[in-house]
Amino acid sequence: MFSAPPALADRLTALHRAPEPQVLSALLPDATLSPDERGHVVGRALGLLADLRAGLREGWANQFLQEYRLNSSEGVALLSLAEAFLRVPDPETADRLIADKLGDADWKAHKGRSASGLVNSATWGLVIGRALVSDSGQAGALKRLIARAGEPFVRQAVGAAMRMMGEIFVMGRTIDEALGRMRKPDNKGFTASFDMLGEAARTYPDAERYFRSYQDAIAAVGRAAKEGHSISVKLSALHPRYEVPQWSKCVPALTEMLEALAIQAAEAGIGLTVDAEESERLEMSFAIIAGVAGLPALKGWDGLGMAVQAYGKRARPTIDWADGLGAATGRRIAVRLVKGAYWDSEIKRTQEWGLSDYPLFTRKAATDVSYLACAKAMLAAPNIYPAFASHNALTVATILEWAGSSRDFEFQRLHGMGDGLYEALVREEGYHCRIYAPVGGHRDLLAYLVRRLLENGANSSFVHQLADEGLSDDQLLADPAEKIAAVAGARHPSIPLPVDLMGDVRRNSMGIDLWDRAILAETAAGIARAVPPPTIPAPSRAPVRPAKVPAGGTDAATAVARAHAGFARWSQTPLETRARALEKLADLMEAHRGDLMGIAVHEAFKTIPDALGEVREAVDFCRYYANQARSVLSLHELPGPTGERNILRHEGRGVWACIAPWNFPLAIFIGQVAAALVAGNTVVAKPAPQTPAIAGWAVALAHEAGVPEDALVLLPGGPEEGAALIADARIAGVAFTGSTGTAKRIARGLLEDEARPLVPLIAETGGINAMIVNSTALPEQVVADVVTSAFRSAGQRCSALRLLLLQADIADRTLEMLGGAMDTLVVGDPADPQTDVGPVIDDAAFERLMGYRDSVRDRWVKTIAAPAAGRFVPPTVIRIDRIEGLGREWFGPLLHVATWEAGKLEETVARVNASGFGLTMGLHSRIARAAETVEAFARVGNLYVNRSMIGAIVGSQPFGGEGLSGTGPKAGGPHYLPRFAAERVTSTDTTSAGGNATLLSLDDVSI
Description:
Layout: H1 6-15, H2 20-31, H3 35-56, H4 60-67, H5 73-85, H6 91-102, H7 117-133, H8 140-149, H9 153-169, H10 175-182, E1 191-195, H11 204-223, E2 230-233, H12 247-268, E3 271-274, H13 282-293, E4 304-309, H14 315-329, E5 333-338, H15 343-353, H16 364-380, E6 384-389, H17 393-403, E7 410-414, H18 423-427, E8 433-438, H19 442-455, H20 462-466, H21 473-476, H22 480-486, H23 517-530, H24 556-571, H25 575-591, H26 593-604, H27 608-632, E9 636-638, E10 644-652, E11 655-659, H28 667-678, E12 682-686, H29 692-704, E13 712-714, H30 719-727, E14 731-737, H31 740-752, E15 761-764, E16 770-773, H32 779-791, E17 803-807, H33 811-822, H34 843-855, E18 860-863, E19 876-879, E20 894-900, H35 905-913, E21 917-918, E22 920-924, H36 928-937, E23 942-945, E24 962-963, E25 981-989, H37 997-1000
Parallel strand pairs: 1-2, 1-8, 2-3, 3-4, 4-5, 5-6, 6-7, 7-8, 11-12, 11-14, 12-13, 14-15, 16-17, 16-22, 17-20, 19-20, 22-23
Antiparallel strand pairs: 9-10, 10-25, 18-19, 21-24
Helix pairs in contact: 2-16, 3-17, 4-9, 5-6, 5-19, 6-7, 7-9, 9-19, 11-12, 12-13, 14-16, 16-17, 16-22, 23-26, 25-27, 25-29, 26-27, 27-28, 32-33, 35-36
């Protein structure tokens, strides 16, 4: 199988996260036009602009898009409505969705403006719809009229608009319908690349269904092979785990499926192009495409193609890779060059993962420069058939200039966009243009395409800039190379590097790119070396303890005595010194990240991604509290009358007992300790008995960072040591994370001694955490977030999803998809990069969870297999009849599900509140007013809307509950540190020393 030559492989690796100026400096020469070329290109582009503008004035579809542009509030409202409306099965929720999306837009401004009767008809429907959903009195008579008519008038009007949008964005609901539409006169001279597009597969049945749809499409297009159409394939639609950690499973499976499709396409005499996806999947796609290209059965067939996204920093060497593949396999590889489709999500993911730099360009002009450099290389490559996908007149004119008289390439455009740009080129000048044509049912496919438009900077696209009357031709045709040269290729100033993401709040912790195959392998190997290979679930397994790690054996009284003796010195240590010690500790944890991850995997049974998250959160706590201390705990001068000085200061309370859980044995342990220390307290830190080793490492690193050994004392042990620690009257405060029952016992213990001072208790406990899902939610997103929230970390997070509440109208479909997604999970050794769900923490937890699971066997909705040997609790979904049927928290991968009725959202929230727990809650809905309702009525510390319920970020999502779920204040938030400090105020009368000197210094000219 073809593999890149070492020099090319090195370029691909080096450019992935390279600084933007470095990458662009190598691209600019090939993207820069000579003065003569620039003159020719601009002249040609002006003609194309005229063609584009004429095309935008023709046809109802173009007029609809121009009337409701994506950069208008009405356009966004329509797209948002289209994203959800067609999947809503119940009228009540559909009406609420319409009211939510139409109610705030100015539809009257569009009345009668379009030359298209169809567009004006749709506009009247939207105007009437807004009136009907409005709360204004003017709508009353119309509402009464419609009520008497007895027709769902608004839904009909909106449905008509949705059908229009479906016609615009979707070529056909079936491949036969799409082929028929391509034969209509307005597509004369064009060919199509049909894509049975939709969401990536979430389940194996999804993947099988998509595979069959591709087979059927190839067969249908093959029957009309003389028409010149082709098929595009999305690999993520063919496997639900198209992920680098699952390489050994998904790459062979996908290669086999793509082989079958390619052989079928070759026999039918049509082309087959593999679409590009997120940058982290690039190497996987290389392996799959190379595996297929070398098949003897495909010899002599030049129909195999691949897409390249110019916004990626590796785009230019990817062109060389494709040319090399063609040379090695004796074929021309059809390369579709596109600007890119996943920009927003890749920017966000890079920031969340804390990586060194972005895999793509942050400026649109930089993407244009990359596109032109790639285009020039493609035109010169002997083993590439170039296909240039663009709606940009300047880009098209540049390619025409470089191509000269050659017609040995093609242009491509999206169905529904760019009408007018290519018609004259195709029908009068003999150039070839292919339409990228989505095929599928409007309910799913329209929603998918709309999300791509909403998520990927559509407002900056050339077509939509063209409709902006405020932009001149000179601005539209500005040279991207000049733009980039003017800023020296610098990254966009509004997109900070991940390390700077949090601004002045803290420096972001460094992540690891676990979707880089080489880095993942190196990380896994390091974790395997960290301790002897485990035999799950040996409870006594622990890493070899370095000499610097504090030894156990200290009793509670001795530990408190040491910390009590060290308080005077540490509390008088300057605040800045204490803050710097925390920052040094953060740096040391990052330096020892591999060791700490290894311990987290082998002692706490965390998967590799969870172990990485554990270290990053601990680092973030240290840096955040260090910065917070400088502002929150510093001296504050307060106002008062002249001649008086009032100073508020924060000082340490004494010895704090910090009692951490086993489920976050480093992050929560360090978070409690760091907050107490920087506030000027000394600490006796008691880790959970299941995870003493990682706590020992953390304490040793803190000592190395400058925290005195008598300021931070480790107290390993179990409940007895914890009870003795709490009972010691010298304890001045307690920070605890664990069960509600233990928190209550601690609270009672702190009050039993009448002579003991009142001391603060900061408790964070668990919860019956619910996620509410209504029928506007995207099922694929819901399922992905449910799996993450309920089963990641084997369900052993305080924030984990325990109770899934589905609107009854969508319950069956959602549960079917959830069951399929669960079938893709890997339960096993947490040190294996492929593992999703590891074992639970100890024998007691295993027996408790399995005993309950067995007792409700008749209520299982879904369960999956797990290894028989070891403490593996199979992820299981359990049906309950009513919300109140779950009376306690089951701390493991057991998810309960109940239903609720449309229109009863407020009541549903109230019933969840009635449990008394208040830690986390989730909501999935496309109705903004639903989110406002839940936000107003939910009694929870953390509410998550349209996302997973786990993974709170320090400084961004302060975490903690209320009611039975904790006391507050929130960890990682702005109000946490003051709880650890004593507030003291000094008021000084300065007049007693001879008056207020500031008054005497005033220059009164009247004296």
